[in-house]
Amino acid sequence: xxxxxxxxxxxxxxxxxxxxxxxxxxxxxxxxxxxxxxxxxxxxxxxxxxxxxxxxxxxxxxxxxxxxxxxxxxxxxxxxxxxxxxxxxxxxxxxxxxxxxxxxxxxxxxxxxxxxxxxxxxxxxxxxxxxxxxxxxxxxxxxxxxxxxxxxxxxxxxxxxxxxxxxxxxxxxxxxxxxxxxxxxxxxxxxxxxxxxxxxxxxxxxxxxxxxxxxxxxxxxxxxxxxxxxxxxxxxxxxxxxxxxxxxxxxxxxxxxxxxxxxxxxxxxxxxxxxxxxxxxxxxxxxxxxxxxxxxxxxxx
Length: 301
Ligand code: PSU
Ligand code: MN
Description:
Elements: E1 2-3, H1 5-13, E2 17-20, H2 23-28, H3 33-47, E3 51-58, E4 61-64, H4 68-76, E5 80-83, H5 88-94, E6 97-100, H6 102-111, E7 116-118, H7 129-132, H8 137-143, E8 148-151, H9 160-169, E9 173-177, E10 197-198, H10 201-214, E11 220-223, H11 234-250, H12 258-269, H13 273-297
Helix pairs in contact: 3-4, 3-13, 6-8, 10-13, 11-12
Bound molecules: pseudouridine-5'-monophosphate and manganese (II) ion.
């Protein structure tokens, strides 16, 4: 694993660092928006005085703090794989290029000493999982990594209530940020309440410090809804989601292809509107992650 000098120094000095994933770049967003959004997230962090740590795998080397060139390469590469935790050893042994999922990114970030991580929407329990067992490795990864992930809940393509049940089972502390409703990625409210709420970065930091002091090994998931004005229209959201799920079913799409397939279908069906929401969600989460990382660096109130 290669950790950039800048990140190594920032972690050692206790300065704020925020990790960013790359599956959203390689498999989540279409080109050229993917690279634009990845760069915008890094710029936003730098402007907030936070060191960005974009994480991915280049020629079999897990890199914490991709260079601009490496990021461009992953964003435009033809043979770039989607890598979750179980894929990392194979990717390293075979020298492949890959975007890391929330699970794999959280693992590498934690090993590099990074405490806060921003993504769009966490993976979770897929609809029909009671027969397919298709549940994202993101959930299990977060159970064993004392890191903080900022996400807009989980993608609404999933079974959201089942995902929250699993997060409870896995001892992941879920916090709603300025909301009592668990967000549904494209929409502010997925129809399920959050177990606890915080209203400021310092309050989130207090929970994170308490988790650390208790020696708990699970993640804190800070669920940050997209601004109400920016969310996808509820009726359109429902219709598009139903169509995407039916298309996946008809096409026999399964396993790790499911999430990229559904996201792509939704982006096309909404003529890019959902892409705007996806972008707003991601950058909003990155901004909140910056504030939380800064609050964690500040002395406890
Ligand atoms: N959030 C997004 N876009 C994405 C993802 C999350 O806004 O593409 C990715 C994340 O990398 C997440 C992965 O870890 O989707 C989940 O895939 P799966 O359901 O196969 O575990
Ligand atoms: Mn899966």
